[in-house]
Amino acid sequence: MTRVRDIAPLVAAAALAVGAVVAARTAGCDDPGHYEVRSWGYELVGGCIAPGDIVVPNPAPAPKPTAPTFARD
Known about the structure:
Elements (H helix, E strand, L loop, with lengths): L1 H24 L8 E5 L2 E5 L28
Antiparallel strand pairs: 1-2
């Protein structure tokens, strides 16, 4: 029973690694793309991501600061 407890994490890690490799190889993207340096930063050129694939929500507005109130004695 002790050997099973010792080997189980290794078997689970190996199965996850094999699953990751299989998922990456069968992703269906022939052109992984590359990054190019632009004047404003980096830009992904090529690849399987279209401009509308990743949607980033607008950030919530920050609350306005209030004046501190001091207690009077």
